[in-house]
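Let's practice the habit of predicting before peeking. Look at the sequence and jot down your guess about where helices and strands might fall. Then scroll down.
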Amino acid sequence: MRGIYFVLGVVILLSLASLAPALDVIYDNSDPGCVVSDTWTTSTSGCYGPNKRMHTKGTGSETVVWTVPLSPGWYRAEFRINSNTSYAMDARYSIVHRDGTENLVINQRRSSTSWFLLGGAYYFNGSAVVTLTDEYTTGTYVVADALRFRSVFSFVQMSDSHVGYSMGTNDATLVANELKTLGSLGMATYGFSAPPPSFAIHSGDTTEYGQQYWNTFTNIINGLPFPVYVTAGNHDSTWSSIRERIRDRHGAPFYSFDHYEQGTRYHFVTLNSPIIQSPRAGFSREELDWLAGDLSALEPNTPVFINLHHPINGASDPKPFDAYRLLETLRPYNAVVIFYGHGHNFNTTTFDNMRIVQGGSTYDAAAGKRGYNIVTVSHDRVHIAKKIYGQETSSGLLNNMLIPAAPAYPTITVDAPAKDAIIQTSSVAISASINGASGTVDSVDFEFNGDGNFRAMSGSNNGPYTANLNLSAAIHGRQWIRVRFTMSTGSVYCKMVPFWTWDNFPKPRWMVDLGAGSQSRPAVADGRVYVGTNGGADGGSMWCVDASDGSLIWKVNMPADVVSSPEVADGRVIFGCGDSKVYALDALTGAQIWNKSCSGPLYGSPTISEGNVYIGSIGTVATNAYLYSINAATGAENWKFSCYAIESKPFVLGNTVFVGAWNSYFYAVNTTNGTQRWRYQRNSNIYYSPADSWPVASASANRVFVADREYVLSAININTGLADWTRTSVSSQGLTPDGKGLLIRNTTGNLERATFDNSTTWVRSASLDSAPVSPSCNGSYAAIVDQDGLVTVAQVGNGSLVYQFMVTQGYQLHPVNVDSNGRVYASTLEGFLLCVQNNITDVEDWNLY
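Done guessing? Here is the structure:
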C-alpha cells in the first residue's frame, strides 16, 4: 500500500505482521509469462535461475518479452548479468509503463556479476512489460537473464526558507510553485529518475522572525500536492517561537510519522533542536525520552530517518554533550540518515558513524543555493541529489547508500562509571567492553568532558578495557566520558556516559529527577521550591518540593511548556504557560485558584507588585503581543499594553513597569492605567533588541538598566527615557541585595560589580559568555551560571570566590537562584533540580534522587 502516513500517537492502523519488509520482485527468463523467440540459445553458465538466454547480432526481430505482475506503484527496473567481456555493449530494451514506452540502450558488458540499473523510476499499473531484442552493434552476444523490480519513493528535503526576510518569501514561493508541478525528475548523476515526491520535510528556519510570518509560510507550503512535515530552526525560536504552532500543526513540537511502500515501513522522526525561545541548540530531557520510547516500538530492522535543524557535528549548537546524548538514544535502532539545515549549503558527511545530510536553502539565490534535496529510497538504498531551482535535472550528493538490514552499530558496555552514577572519591575507575564489531580491537581510549585528550585504556580482545581517571582537578558536579574503540578494520566506535562527582564540598544537599527538562528558575519561598518543566505532546508541569530535602510536596501537570520562572506571593504561585494562559496555584496544595487567557504563549516570567501580576506574551503572531497587568488574587485583567513579543521579566519601580520587547524598544508603562510613559531605542535593528535580559531599576539612581543583544548595557533616565550612559560587552545585569549597586555579566568571562555611575567595584572571573542570564543575589551571596552549566557563587561585598559547581554539561540558558545561606537552586535541560551548597550539617537529610 503506497502513500499512507500515520503521525504516531494519533493513528495506528497496521498490525505488526504488516510491518515486515516486502521482497523485491524478481522475474527470471525461465518464469511463466516470459516469452522467448525460438532462435535464442540456452546457457547455464553464470545465470540467476536455471538458465539464461543468449543471441548473436540480429535485426531486432528476435525478442525476449517479460510480462511481470506488479502491485501498482513506482519502481526501478534492474537487470542481472554475469561478468563477461563478450556481451553486447549496446543492448536494446524497451519498457512499457503507465505513461508510455521507453526505449533504452544498455551496456551488458560488466566487470562483476550483479544487478544493474535498467531504468526508472516508472509507475506500473498492475504489470511491467520489458522487451529485449537481438539488435546491437558491439559484442558477441546479447543476454537475457532475470529482471528485478524495486519499489521506490522519493521525498523532498527543504530548509532555511527565512520567509519574511528580504527575498525569502519570494524565493520560497518560487520553489513551492516548482514543486507543485514536479513530476518524475531526472537524476542524471545517478542514471535514473526519481518519482514525484510523496511528501516533504522542512529542516527549519521556516521564517526569519518566528510567529509573525508563520501564516505566510504555511500558506506557501499548504498549496503543495503532498504533506509537508516541519521542524523549527533558530530563527523560528529566538524572537517569537513557533513551538506552539508546530504543536498545532503536528500534535507536538517533536513527532514521528510512517511511510509505507509496498509493505515496507519507513519511519521518520522530527526533532526540535532549538532550545525554547533561544537560538541555541540542545535536547531537553523529555524530547530524548520521547524519542527512545518512539523508537522502542519499532521492529529492529525498520529504517529510521531523522529531521532537525542544527548540525550535530560542530563544537556548539548543540554542544557535543547533547549531540552524543542524541546519538546514544539512536544507537540501538536502524537510524539511516540525519537531515539538517542551518548552514544554507548542500553537503553530506558522517559524524561518529552517523550519516548527516544538509538540505541547502530555498533562499539565497544570489549564492546559487536556492533549491532543495530530492531523496529517493529504493527498498534498501538511498540516493540524494540537490536540485537548484529552475534547473532541469539534479546533481549528485549521495548515491546508493545501503540501508542496513538491522542496527549496525556494535554494542559498547561501560560498566563503570554507570550512567548518572555519583562518584564521591577523588578518582573514578573506567571499564568498557565491545561486542558485535567487525575485526579485532586495535586500541581503546577515552576523553573527559570533551577535552580531546584521549587517555589509553588497557585490556585485550573485546574487553573489558580499564583505566583510572584522576578527578582532583575537576570542578565538582556533572561530568562525562567518551570511550573510543578503534578496530583493525579502521572503524571507530564510541560511547558517552554522564555521571556526577564530588569528594567534598561543594556538593548537592539534594537532587530531584524531574523527568523532563527545565528552563525555569526555581522560586524559593516559605521552605519550598517551585519550578516548571518543558513538555512534548503531553505538556509540562509545575513542581513543589521541600527546600530542606527535595521531597515532593505536589506536582501539577500543565497543558504546555512551563518555561516561565514562577513567583510566589500571598500563598499563590504564579507563572505563565505555553498554552497562552497565566496560572495561579495554591502554594500549599497546587490547587488551581485562577487562570487568565492571554495572546499567545507566555515564556516570560511574572513580576508581582502591590497585589498585581505583570507578565508579557509573545503573541500568536508577534504583532499582537501584550504586557499584562492582572489582579493577583482574582486573575482579572487590569489592563494590557500592546507592543511586541516579550520574554523578559518586567521590573516594577513605583508606578512604572519596565520591559523590553523584540521590536528594538524598551518600554516604561504606567502601572495604574497601562499607558506608555516613554520608549527607548538604542539600535533600530530588532536583532539587537533589549528583550531577553531581565531589567533592574534604582530609585536613588533614577535609572533603569538593561542589556541588549548587541551586548550594550544602557543606563536609562527614568524621567526622560534617554540613556545617561552605556557600557559594552554586557549580556545581562542584576541588583545587589542592598539595592545600591549593579552586578554585571560580562561577555568576556567576568562577573563585575559596578556603581550606578558605571564605575567598577570588583571583578570576578566566572567563565561567563554572551548568554542573557541574570545573576541572583541574596544576603551576602551572588550566584551566576555560565551557558556551559558552571555556577559561580561569590561574595557580593568584595567578589571573593565562595565556590563553583557544574550543574550540567549542556546549555544552561536560564538563571539559578540563591538563598541567604549561599545555597544554589538550579534546574537543567537534562531534567534535574538541585540544591547545592558549600557546607552542611544535616548530612543525613540528603536526598540524591
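How did you do? Residues 1-22, 842-846 have pLDDT under 50 and may be disordered.
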